[in-house]
Amino acid sequence: MSLDTTPALTPVDEARRQVEICNACRYCEGYCAVFPSAFSQRAFSDGDITQLANLCHNCRGCYYACQYTEPHEFALNLPAALAEVRVESWERYAWPKGFARLFQESGVALAGALVVGIALLFFALTALTPEAGEGFYAYLSHGAMVAIFTPAFLLPLVAVGIGLHRYWRDVDGRPITFAHLKSAFQDAARLKNLSGGAANGCNFEDGDRYSQARRHAHHAVMYGFLLCFASTSSGTVLHYGFGMEAPYSLFSLPKLLGVPGGILLTIGATYLVWLKTKADPDLGAASVWGGEMAFVLLLGATGATGLALYAATGTSWVAPLLAIHLGTVLAFFVTTPYSKMVHGFYRLAALIRDAQRPSGAV
Amino acid sequence: MTQLDKTRWDVIVVGGGNAGLCAAIEAAETGARVLILESAPKPYRGGNSRHTRNFRCMHRGPLSVLTGSYEEDEYFDDLIRVTKGKTDEHLARMTIRTSEECLPWMEAHGVAFQKSLSGTLSLSRTNAFFLGGGKALVNAYYNTAQDLGVTVAYEAEVKHVVVEEGRFQGLDVLIGGSETRIEGRALVLASGGFQADLDWLADAWGPAARNFLIRGTPYNRGVVLRDMLDQGADSVGDPTQCHAVAIDGRAAKFDGGIVTRLDCVPFSVVVNKDGERFYDEGEDVWPKRYAIWGRLVAAQPDQVAYSIIDSKSINNFMPSVFPPETADTLDGLAQKLGLPGTKLRETVTAFNEACQNGTFMPTELDGLSTNGLTPEKTNWARPIDTPPYYGYSLRPGVTFTYLGLKVDDTARVSGPTGRFANIWAAGEIMAGSILGEGYLAGFGMTIGTVFGRIAGQEAAKHVA
């Protein structure tokens, strides 16, 4: 291949070249949704390729099963080709655009965001120390927290929404029905596309051996994150709806959701990081390996610092840990539209779009 | 690698494809010390098994992904039909019967199955498809073998089988540029056919064979087969024949695999390089005709043919891996394909004038036939008149060769003085014992699995 002087294809063109070869083979039909979706077509627009790329969960089953990987002249590596398209599409759809390249590719940038977030919170704790207040609010008033976190939560959501809208237009999305949502959420909840189809799991940390490790680790992170999110939401409801203010006891809704959530999130993220160090980086988007790693660490850190903060209740560690935890959460929220975190939104959109495909059309 | 010649192996398996792996796993499960010598480098391990996709399996009721039932007699009848009776009924029936217990064994040793692929629904009752295809099966077996302690040497080319007084003693093997003698107590030969040795093919078939494409591995050169035949091993199968199908003429010389198939022939007119038709393109559905077309194209000048369709038919068949040549006129297409334009136009005009009115039904024999043409096209005959026109070149693609080692029902190989004491064979190297002519989809993997397992069990019994 070293003598190959053909100009490098764009990620979309390279993925299209590969998908067209797949479409003449079809051996991988049973692995995941990418293949039945691809095999229902004969020609692939840029939008089609983008949709396939976001449908791909990088389970890698197709790579290890492929008879056309290098050194074969077809040089197929579909998981990597689709990963490159995926990353490029998130950059293209991001608003504002430049941030996405920065935070996707650079783990250092994400770490920088973390430092800035924590520093901001330390500054807030110092500058805005309330005169009176209970629990955390003794360090930072409820009003100050709301003033910081409401925009930090809502603005990224708006940015993600803009990106999704652009995606939906490109992949020719149709009006969404309850049935589409049901199908997509069921697949996402079970991570069906990391299940390997008839195989027992996917190929990730141990070459061509199937394993459920990545799916289980991702489940822990996803459900841990959702529990933490539910915990915060329940706190908000208790605060505004019932006038019950933090801190909450162990047998309150925020704690019953948040503590297991934090534990799951921390363990899951640690497990994912370990698995990622074992996996072959050449089967993903190599350019964003560092950024993805930093993102998983950041996500795990939101859980770990939250648990640490709870464990420190009543000690002098509360103030610094509060700044560290809230700073971590802040960095996580603000970078959401530009970090690996967007994958969840785009994957879900791709699953909804796939549910709109007439079934059985080949 | 250097330690391979320091050990006296219980069982040495030559060839790391499906049959060899099944033998190695069976032998290793009895506790035997097993070595696999695979001539390919690791990325290309597995011989032609890496290009396969399913396993034809007898079953008396629903079994795993298989629906309904497929009983011994029906299976055997199917075999008789494709081989025109050229089979060993005893071995064939035993293979068919044993296939039923093989499927659960395969699953227990790591093979995942899926329902039949799109476009192959006609096989959902008879053939179990490997999830991801044959390479995924090969990977699974290598993992299982590794877990059982089997040693695998890649790029290990066996040059000579040392046989003394009907007994295998050792192998001369080329590994890493140097030849080594490796000793063992039992030998399983599972190194495939000779279809990648173009000189041998040309000797057997004639010089035209040099223009054939080899669909599978370049590593099946038949070195061990020839060595055994030279030492007087009993052979079976027609030495001059190979199984060839019509494939995309632009495919690479070796290893093009499944994607080089072209399904457009029934909807086209096919001409040779002189622009002349030579056979009924619409005789039957393509899965029943692609093997015949391998021979038909092989008989044409320069072993090449061209399939011509118009825009009406472009979506009636599976997409090809290489895009067709396209032009708005037949002359333009002829130029791109290197065909005589006037002659092509004459051929197509004559064909178009012979087409009749009727209903075109692409998925069944529609009886839409030409009238008064030589040769007639008896189904799917629609005028080629709606540009753009598309053209594909066709060449014979060799799948496997028939000549092999004769074995008995314990997979034992025999020679000048009766059965060899400790040599067994499995897979393509002995498939000619059962498959004397033609091919039945998924049957190669059945022979490989059944005889691989038997050979491994027998070899292990011998050294126990």
UniProtKB/TrEMBL annotation, chain A:
Entry keyword set: Membrane, Transmembrane, Transmembrane helix
Transmembrane residue ranges: 107-128, 140-164, 220-242, 254-274, 286-311, 317-338
Coiled-coil region(s): none
InterPro entries from the UniProt entry: Citrate_utilization_prot_B, NarG-like_sf
Protein name stated in the entry: Citrate/tricarballylate utilization protein
Lineage: Bacteria, Pseudomonadati, Pseudomonadota, Alphaproteobacteria, Rhodobacterales
TrEMBL record, chain B:
FAD-dependent oxidoreductase 2 FAD-binding domain boundaries: 10-434
Record key words, sorted: FAD, Flavoprotein, Oxidoreductase
GO molecular function term, any single one: oxidoreductase activity
Cofactors, names only: FAD
Keyword Flavoprotein applies: yes
Entries under InterPro entries matching the protein: CobZ (IPR012831), FAD-dep_OxRdtase_2_FAD-bd (IPR003953), FAD-oxidoreductase_2 (IPR050315), FAD/NAD-bd_sf (IPR036188), Succ_DH/fumarate_Rdtase_cat_sf (IPR027477)
Superkingdom to which the source organism belongs: Bacteria
Protein name in the entry: Tricarballylate dehydrogenase
Organism expressing this protein natively: Marivita hallyeonensis
